[in-house]
Amino acid sequence: MSKKIGYIDESGDKSIHFEKGGVSTFFIVSAIIIDENSNSRVREEFRAIARKHTQAPEIKSSSKAFRDIDKRINFLKDISKLDFRIYSVIVDKRKVFEDSGLQFRDSFYKYVNGLLDHELYDYYPYLELVSDNHGSEKFMDGFISYVEKNHKQTELFKGPEFKFSDSKEEPLIQLADFIAGSIAKCYEPDKVEYRSKEILQILNRHILHLREWPENPPKLFRKIEDGDQKYDQELVDFIFFRINEFVNANQNRTEIEIKNQIICLNYLIYRFKKDPYEYIFSDEIIDRIKIRDIHLTKRLFSKEVIGNLRDNKILITSSQSGYKIPCCKGDLIRFYNNYSSKIIPMIDTLGKTDIIIRSATSGNINLLEDNDYKLLKDLIETSASR
């Protein structure tokens, strides 16, 4: 497995007093992941894009130049051509400090450290992390201590590597800063504006997961009207309850199959929040799993990932348009129709084949009379009586 380098930066402050003016409601940590072999090339390409858009010596998401949403969108479109992945932890401080026991700053840090660690190293066992040495030392020091305490070196996990660098000297930390700040514009109440939804559309192919916490119910990026028959809140709540149960029960397991299933769920969750009505082709999900140097065919993906998740009572529907977490009765109808369009013709074919076999052998071969095929015989007879 090739080594990856992750550049980390934050958006929002760590103050728990979110009710005060000037204090952020969300705390966001974003990791920009780049293959070690592509690192120098991506760095130079980012520098060239930065020179095209601004003469400032350092790209900062908070700079005056990018307060103009049109300029931010244009810059994002250019950097979206680069080769990197995005993993973010997004914490809603209102829910954390109002509804949980995380009343103190140190507990808050520790919990966010755990969120970042659990999945980031699931995706990338060989990972070097680089962070700005100004302004984020306390968070990163805590994260380093957490990872070193909770990860033992194994054949698959060679141990964490950490570095600090000056963002003025490392353009890829600037890239992480700009991505984290742009994602904040999709969450922070006083930063969200009419073109914010375009940010995730532009970054979509780069995103592994936007890990929101707390995450139930899911926060959608599009408004669902009350009474919308295409969105069944009871169904969605039940499915996400089962998903959270599965993730909580399995997040510390090391089996490759379980890791693949969790990565699949992460991406299905992200895409559901982006648009609950959209289907996703299997290629997109397999591409996320492939970053662990695991290559699945569509058949194996269907059996070992989707099939096993369904065996664990997680409802994932499919159609000719791909997979999705269902949000309404219509999704379930399409799922049933998709399978019935395949199963019923197969049953009819078996019935016709049985007639031919019995005719050709004067009834000497009559497989459906075997007890092993009793259920199949019942299905064929039911289908024939339609």
Verbal overview:
This protein is α/β, with parallel strands linked by helices. It contains 13 helices and eight strands. The chain has a six-stranded mixed beta sheet. Strands 7-8 form a two-stranded antiparallel sheet. Strand 4, helix 5 and strand 5 (161-165) form a beta-alpha-beta unit. Helix 2 runs parallel beside helix 7 (196-203), helix 4 crosses helix 5 and helix 9 packs across helix 10 (282-289). The longest helix is centred in the last third of the chain and has 32 residues, at 329-360. It is elongated and about 90 Å long. It starts with a strand and ends with a helix.
Number of helical regions: 13
Instruction: Report helical residue fraction.
Output: 40-55%
Q: What best-fitting shape do the alpha-carbon axes yield? A: elongated
Strand content: 5-15%
Q: What is the ordering of alpha helices and beta strands?
A: EEHHEHHEHEHHEHHHHEEHH
| Structural class computed from helices and strand pairing | alpha/beta
Largest sheet data: 6 strands, mixed
Strand order of the largest sheet: 5-4-1-2-3-6
Mean pLDDT: 85
Rg, nearest Å = 25 Å
Quote the distance from N terminus to C terminus.
54 Å
Contiguous runs where pLDDT drops below 50 for at least 5 residues? 153-157
